[in-house]
Amino acid sequence: MSGDQKDLKAQEKAQPAEPARHRREGIGFMGRLRAYFLAGILVTAPIAITAYIAWWFVSLIDGHIRPLIPSAYNPENYLPFSIPGLGLLVVIVVVTLIGAFAAGYVGRLVLGLGEGVVGRMPVVRSVYGAVKQIFETVLAKKSNAFREVVVIQYPRPGVWSLGFITGSAHPEVQLQLAGQAEDMVNVFIPCAPPTAGYLAMVPRREVTALNMSVEDGLKLVMSGGIVVPPDRRPTLVEPPADHSQDQDDDRDQPDRKVLAAASRSKR
Asked: How far is CA 97 from the centre of its chain?
């Protein structure tokens, strides 16, 4: 082997190997199918679940109301098909008629007599009074129930729980726990999912109100913290910087090139 061949082999060994070029690979066929399948779930799942719950609610009411409709007034006996939502429509009409009757003089008189009879029953009067007061408070136009989303330190200091202010605390609680110098409020702390909850009576100073609507708070609780509502705080916009003063200063100063040329000419 000649010396020239040895030098060529030595140069080839000394030269670093070229790095392998990474080939850009696009999404494969199975990847596209998986992406399309997930997109289909995101589109159809909320619609399907909402439709199922609505259909279950309508079917539940229809199953209890349809047997009570007399056959002579049931339109399904004269039609070759069933009418979904017939029981719900009957309930809406009956409740509206009862409300119109109770608004009159005779209706108020009958309602007062009925409440007097119920008020004499030991157990029924407690249940009826509590349910009636709840509905009157919730359906009132000026009600403050579930109007404010707050967080409090519960069940121990350092751990914060989301709740809803349902009203002011009972005067006896106000007097025994806080006295007259501090305001006490009732805070309902729901579970996740909100099948039940806890009632906490805390001073208002220990309650931190959130800039969050009740709907967003319920979404946060029902999803177990998965669905986070958007930040409603106003974004701070910084004012544009004023460069006019800087431009004026630059105009007052002579050009550096002119100074350099003048110094060379003096030399």
From this structure: 36
Q: Which long-range contacts (CB under 8 A, 24 or more apart) does 52-58 make?
A: 58/84, 58/85, 58/87, 58/88
Distance CA 264, CA 257 (A): 11
Element (H, E) at 260: helix 256-266
The model's pLDDT over 112-167, given as tens digits with 9 standing for 90+, comes to 898 888 888 888 888 888 888 878 777 765 566 677 899 999 888 889 999 998 88
Can you count the helices (H) and strands (E) in the chain? 9, 5
Cβ-Cβ contacts under 8 Å for 217 (sequence gap 6 or more): 149, 162, 164, 210, 229
Residue 63 CA to residue 84 CA, distance in Å, equals 10
Place of tokens 């407690």: 126
Q: List the structure tokens of 30.
A: 């199975």
Nearest to residue 206, comparing CAs of 258, 259, 169, 251?
A: 169
Residue from 163, 165, 167, 166 nearest 218 by CA: 163
Residue 168, amino acid:
S
Distance from C-alpha of 165 to C-alpha of 184, rounded to nearest angstrom: 11
pTM of the predicted model as reported, rounded to 2 decimal places? 0.56
What is the rounded distance in angstroms from the CA atom of residue 97 to the CA atom of residue 107? Answer: 11
Q: How confident is the model at residue 205 (pLDDT cuts 50, 70, 90)?
A: confident
H helix or E strand, kind and range, residue 151: strand 149-153
